[in-house]
Amino acid sequence: MATIEQTASLGDKTVRRIGFGAMQLAGPGVFGPPKDPDAARAVLRRVVELGVNHIDTAQVYGPDVVNELIAEVLRPYPDDLVIATKVGGARDETGAWVRASRPEQLRATSEQDLRTLRLERIDLVYMRLGVGGGGPDPVPLADQLGTLTELRDEGKLGLIGLSTASVDDLKTALDITPIAAVQNAYGIGNREDEPVLDLCREHGIAYVPYYPLGSAFTGGPQALADEPVIASVAAKHNVSSSQVALAWLLAHYERMLLIPGTSSVAHLEENVAAGSIALDDDDLAALKNVRHLSAPTF
Ligand SMILES: NC(=O)c1ccc[n+]([C@@H]2O[C@H](COP(=O)([O-])OP(=O)(O)OC[C@H]3O[C@@H](n4cnc5c(N)ncnc54)[C@H](OP(=O)(O)O)[C@@H]3O)[C@@H](O)[C@H]2O)c1
């Protein structure tokens, strides 16, 4: 039987293992305001009511829209709330995701995060690598992390993380600065990132999978529901397939921190409740054989 620890350390902080990914609170395509701003506000209010104390956001969500909603609804922020953002990308006027990894761009995005979240310091900032695709970044990772360490020395951020990082990226980064968390695409139906996860285990680094439900971009939750092994474990526990996918992640590494994304209070409540599902050894053995489900490249 897998035991579920409800909290885990994230650098020098402790957070509940089920957090909240705020990306779904922006408009369609993560661009512009939400279709129903009051519904988005209700989700954020429920996040803190449920005791969630780890929120993942980014200046590029909207852009600015999601950060501004978070500040509007949640200030004054609860003392134990950890807010994480990402730098390295921007949106052009059409909404396309473009790279913004030069030192002055990293600084500008961080300053914009501080302004829109109305914070003096951001708890955790991920260096998001490879935004927009298009091959290797002309700015060396060492220079990108150099800018983040300067911002940390200036007191503008607390912890540094890496996102969409390879094993080599993480090894390079660890020679430069402590890395509190890695945020990469990973889930029960997309396990290609196991080598990075193993390196995180080795170093005790928190691992924060994005697309923990397979992503809105590719209808991830429906693919989970259609997967027969997941569906049978879900039926046995009388829970949903999405909850099984989250419980499986929790059982996979004690410093796995979840940030499922939702624009729905009902889904939020369901996702938080997944923290009390204890998968047994038979479940875990069966779930080992789940086939690869389609995952977005993003
Ligand atoms: N570092 C990066 O590059 C990166 C990239 C992508 C995402 N992220 C972060 O990771 C977070 C999670 O990723 P994500 O939001 O893209 O994908 P996700 O969590 O895998 O899936 C979100 C999708 O699942 C649905 N959903 C949520 N809970 C559900 C439930 N209990 N039952 C059925 N459907 C459910 C949501 O729809 P409803 O709104 O209808 O609930 C939405 O369509 C984001 O919010 C963001 O903070 C980071």
CATH class: Alpha Beta
Tally of DSSP β-strands: 11
Structurally, the number of domains stands at 1
In one word, what is the shape?
globular
* SSE order, one letter for each helix or strand: EEEHEHEEEHEHEHEHEHHHHH
Strand order of the largest sheet: 3-4-5-8-9-10-11
Assign the CATH topology: TIM Barrel
User: Based on the structure given, which CATH architecture is correct?
Assistant: Alpha-Beta Barrel
Assign the CATH superfamily.
NADP-dependent oxidoreductase domain
Distinct ligands: NADP nicotinamide-adenine-dinucleotide phosphate
Query: How far apart are the termini?
Result: 35 Å
Mean pLDDT: 95
Structural class: alpha/beta
How many helices does DSSP assign?
11
User: What's the gyration radius in Å?
Assistant: 18 Å
Strand content: 5-15%
Percent helix, as a range, is 25-40%
Uncertain segments are none
Q: What summary fits the major beta sheet?
A: 7 strands, parallel
